[in-house]
Amino acid sequence: MSTLLMICVFSFVMSISPGPVNMITLSTGMNHGEKQAMPFVLGATLGFSLLLLVIGLGLGTFIEQFSFLLDTLCILGSLFIIYLGFKLMTSSGQLTFEKVARPSFNEGFLLQWLNPKAWIACLAGVSVFKLSPNDPLLYVFILLYFCICYLSIMSWAVAGSRLSFYVKSHKLINIFNQILGGGLMLVAVYLAYSQMI
């Protein structure tokens, strides 16, 4: 299997799998529609790509030398994800744009920098493919990951938008948001716990 194909498979699996960003994107697509979710999707994709670049340029080596930094980031990131999960759980379930907060580009961008899953994906990718700042493959990896990540996150927005067609009741949307918000909080607790053991 060629390295480029392995990079594409790695990027797809890491991007499409459920995690904090994808859960929020699914809920945003459902509550606001896929078009309204696109700023968050773009912010999350750019945030992740920049994180991948910074780790590829050497921050990964620095983090590995001072493992307590990753532990601290994991705890802070998990707290931020719990906050977002709480916001989602307590949203009104209204489909009207003015009444429900829509995650922004900035929140998508910031979430990737505080998302333990994103850090693990970046560190693993750079390590597995033995990428360094002098290796042109690093920049190919970032470009491919950007495209795959964007399409993967966007697919969650589309799925949420399609799901809203079937869930017309505000009560059902409220239940859906509570389940996703609770799931998001559980994911954050799990990520923090797994980093500490």
UniProtKB/TrEMBL annotation:
Domain of life where this protein originates: Bacteria
Compartmental location: Cell membrane
Membrane topology label: Multi-pass membrane protein
InterPro entries recorded: LeuE-type
Protein name, UniProt field: LysE family translocator
Coiled-coil portions: none
PANTHER family for this protein: ARGININE EXPORTER PROTEIN ARGO, ARGININE EXPORTER PROTEIN ARGO-RELATED
Keywords associated with the record: Cell membrane, Membrane, Transmembrane, Transmembrane helix
Transmembrane domains' residue ranges: 39-59, 66-86, 137-160, 172-193
Signal sequence coordinates: none
